[in-house]
Design a protein that fits this description.
Two copies of one chain form a homodimer. In chain A, about 30% of the residues lie in helices and about 25% in strands. In chain A, the strands form five sheets. Chain A has an eight-stranded mixed beta sheet. In chain A, strands 8-9-10-11-12-18 form a six-stranded mixed beta sheet. The termini of chain A are far apart. In chain A, a hairpin with a 2-residue loop joins strand 10 and strand 11. In chain A, helix 14 runs antiparallel to helix 16. The first copy, chain A, folds into three domains: about 270 residues, Ribonuclease Z/Hydroxyacylglutathione hydrolase-like (Metallo-beta-lactamase, Chain A, 4-Layer Sandwich), CATH 3.60.15; about 150 residues, Metallo-hydrolase/oxidoreductase (Rossmann fold); about 100 residues, Ubiquitin-like (UB roll). With about 550 residues, chain A is α/β, with parallel strands linked by helices. The radius of gyration of chain A is 29 Å and the shape is globular. Chains A and B meet through helix 10, helix 12, helix 13, strand 22 and strand 23 of A and helix 10, helix 12, helix 13, strand 22 and strand 23 of B.
Chain lengths: ~550, ~550
């Protein structure tokens, strides 16, 4: 029997860019093709995607791409994979709807083989089959994936929580998970994002009282900011708005888009006459107004941040408005978010971000839910995914505390395959893997050297020194020309620098000037020493030597 | 009677760079002269200090500078103020000791008029007097300042908590605060940092069980990272180490410095033979080793971060080591801290950062402690300081909930004075105030324009295009020379750019080339359009035109 290979291209030992390949013989299945966001060291980087080299090298073996749900960290890099790998894309009707617009921007949608599945379908792909199983999460139509291999079921939980009162009434199919456990789960790949949180997480529905309280008591308009994909949260805003006599407008392109799609498809049930557009707001009393807005991560271009800076054209905030911060700060965004919140308080806007009655809950299960998943599916091997090393570490401890033998728990790493055969599970040789940085121009692949240069540019700026020489005659022509950007220096100092460089080059001997490289080296050297001496700074110096 | 002016130069509506001036007639007192750290938008900025213009313009009126405690956000910008303002510096013996080295670096210490006070001293300064009153905080010898004015006592709490079991046994002088309240506090300027935390904060001593547990159970070396100024925390490490048979080494220049000073002065009582230096560690069993380390904020150059990257020369971490994260992430540092923690987990280091038994507590009082301060001092007016707008907002609500009339609660703003006269308190005209950015070269004053340029440089990099022309003849000399840094473009594209620019300039007519500004404008324009077209990016383009 063939060895089954579990190949993490992204999403283990990190939260983001989830992408897992499962290979049996000459059949490869890909589950999720996500992106992640750059950290503050990745200057000029828009998004981070997995390095797809392994899939590209084996493109003829890729039988299908499966999407567990429509969050960016699970679907965001699909357009980039599709540039090189053509395979059927299996997803729920909802997921297809949400990713469609992005696919249309970046690829020829007609050429794509989009296939809709329903939970419970059993999809034959090569020598394997895939069964999506419904789980609850912060976005509709999320499914775990049960992948049948020769050695048993590889069960990927996807992002999940066990919410017994989900907003859309669609509960996790716990019974089916139990059946699969009975049939035989060889490997459980489990969400571990919230393993640090003890107990059982609150239901999405538990934010209703918090929202209701604010909607009732707010003296003026109520704004709520959350992720553009938090459809369940938006549903509750519409419901509570209708109940408290407020109408809801939507701010932010992405959110408007999602509201349209979801209301059209029935995933969002908007009570009659509750939906209004921005211009209609002026006809309403502030107490009749609620507004859904993007910007929960302090994104500079978002409506919320621009309103907090009073630079947003379509709407202004005023004292007496209330903002509900109904989201989780993604690590790295805290400072920008707090700056926004503080600007709002200065404007007299009341911001509700932590309260006795919660206004946000996580879409990921807590420790007891993670334990229940293990208990339900009774896996032979278990490995946490969708977590940083600290989460993986704690998940492994948790599994051991449940009595799961240590040698059947694996801490996976991007780029290192886990092999399953009749007798055992073991790590294989690393396969080509890594991260690819995409700049704001959409160009894939920003080199580390470019990032290093940007870091230096950002710190001390850049100075260019241009000189013209006549290599034949071995003499300088004209004076040195200096320009600078981002350098904390007065113009007078730059003028001095030009003189210093001019004097130096002019003083060189004929044969020295004939050596263009020496001149270039000298110019850079003189400039660097001058600036370091005067300012104790090290800007990047670009010597430009023109041969005339 | 004179109007008493409360002039916040920094530290209200923000956490950091605390600096308050109190003026009565021709007498000015300054309390605290702190710095704050740059946010991620302040590229190339080392520290942020208050704009001292008001104090410089009135330097002859400054009778004294008082320091409440030795934290950087209260003393860090003193060397910069002292460049222009000479006045006696009043502080506790401990605070003087800790700031001494910094003052020696930046100013001629012999010229300074350093005066030591003890809690309870009454220091006459011009027409006012200042009485330091001991409070508990996360650093020794912290004092509130009772400033007697013609209209009553202006009481600045400084950073405080009411810790009834402080490590050094020096309790807050609650009785004295009560007496001052009876005497008559016209204005209370209160710490508000932890107003969001309900209840009463835990004592510094409450971390002992957490430390003891880890020190006993850790299978190998124990490292603890905290702020270099957390003397109390360090004391507990030495005590628990002695108790559990471990010896303590110190990593990090600043921390070593503070340990020396504090042990010499008796603020740190190091049990005999508990202190070792790094080289002695190799003689010890891992279970006999504890290490104090800086780097709790994920500072790239800190020992901890370098060890996590295995680039630290003096020491390596190994699987089985344990790190106690005994600090609070300063907003903005979270991402860097988590990256460090995750790298450590990957190395097999067990990191204790949240646990049932706490390993860190705050030095700032919680809500009930803030209420107790109001209750004790019974101020006529109250204003929260040392908080962001969100904290000020919540503090004002809290004071109202205590029955304090709203019109006697003030939300201060940096740069806007609060006037106190016989009848009332009211805001005066704004005075010169703001922030000054200090770069890594120690140069004060980084312009906004420079920051904007750095932001662009950081995003897309820089391209320089140099051409030489002969304005007399009106002709181009030689070819265009292109160089780039931080631009995500292949060399071939830059070569093409050089050709495009050369062709363009060569094609200009004689009279056009004679117009140097036009040539410069053209070169920049052509280059920008070329890059935008090919890469959809907008790097900074620097055209250098040399006249030969």
């Amino acid at each position: 029997m063939a060895v089954v290979q579990i190949l993490p291209l992204g999403g283990v030992g990190e939260i983001g860019k989830n992408c897992m390949a499962i290979r049996q013989g000459d059949d490869i299945i890909v589950v999720d093709v996500g992106l992640s966001f750059p950290n503050e060291e990745m200057l000029g980087v828009d998004i981070v995607i997995p390095d797809f080299q392994y899939l590209i090298e084996n493109k003829d073996l890729v039988r299908g791409i499966f999407l567990t749900h429509a969050h960016e960290d699970h679907v965001g890099s699909l357009p980039y994979l599709l540039r090189d790998v053509k395979a059927p894309i299996y997803a729920s009707e909802f997921t297809h709807a949400l990713i469609r617009s992005k696919l249309e921007e970046k690829s020829n949608i007609k050429e794509l083989d989009l296939r809709v599945f329903k939970p419970g379908d059993i999809i034959e792909v090569g020598s394997m089959s895939v069964e999506p199983v419904r789980v609850t999460h912060s976005i509709p139509e999320t499914t775990a994936m049960a992948i049948r291999t020769q050695h048993g079921i590889v069960l990927m939980t996807a992002d999940f929580k066990f919410d017994f009162t989900p907003i859309d009434g669609k509960l996790s199919n716990i019974a089916r998970l139990g059946e699969l456990g009975k049939e035989g789960v060889i490997l459980l790949l489990s969400d571990s994002t919230n393993v640090e949180r003890p107990g059982w997480g609150p239901s999405e529905r538990s934010v209703i009282p918090g929202l209701r309280k604010v909607f009732n008591e707010a003296p003026g308009r109520v704004l709520l900011t959350t992720f553009a994909s938090s459809i369940h949260r938006m549903q509750q805003v519409y419901d509570v708005a209708a109940e408290t006599g407020r109408k809801v407008a939507v701010l932010g392109r992405r959110m408007e888009q999602n509201v349209d799609i979801c209301s059209r498809m029935g995933y969002l049930k908007i009570p009659r006459e509750t939906r209004v557009n921005l211009d209609e707001l002026k006809l309403l009393d502030p107490r009749q107004i609620a507004i859904l807005s993007t910007g929960s991560q302090g994104e500079p271009m978002s409506a919320l941040v621009q309103m907090s800076k009073e630079t947003y054209g379509r709407m202004q905030l005023v004292a007496g408005d209330t903002l509900i911060y109904s989201a989780r700060p993604i690590p790295g965004n805290e400072a920008a978010i707090w700056r926004t919140v503080n600007r709002l308080f200065r404007m007299g806007v009341n911001v509700v971000y932590e309260s006795a009655t919660p206004v946000h809950v996580s879409g990921h299960g807590y420790q007891e839910e993670l334990k229940m998943m293990i208990n339900l599916t009774r896996p032979f091997y278990v490995a946490p995914v969708h977590g940083e090393p600290r989460h993986q570490h704690m998940y492994c401890k948790m599994a051991q505390d449940m009595g799961h033998p240590e040698h059947r728990i694996f801490t996976l790493t991007d780029g290192i395959p886990l092999y399953l055969d009749e007798k055992e599970a073991y790590f294989g040789e690393p396969f080509p893997c890594g991260r690819r940085l995409v700049d704001y121009g959409g160009n894939v692949g920003v080199a580390d050297e470019v990032l290093r240069d940007r870091t230096t540019l950002a710190k001390d700026g850049v100075i260019t020194v241009a000189v013209a020489i006549d290599p034949e005659q071995g003499e300088m022509v004209g004076d040195a020309f200096v320009s600078a950007k981002g350098v904390n220096a007065p113009d007078s100092l730059l003028a001095q620098l030009a003189e210093v460089v001019t004097d130096h080059v002019a003083s060189l001997r004929e044969h020295e000037i004939k050596d263009v490289d020496k001149v270039r080296h000298d110019v850079g050297d003189v400039a660097r020493r001058f600036i370091t001496k005067r300012l104790n700074l090290r800007p990047i110096v670009l010597p430009n030597v023109i041969e005339v």
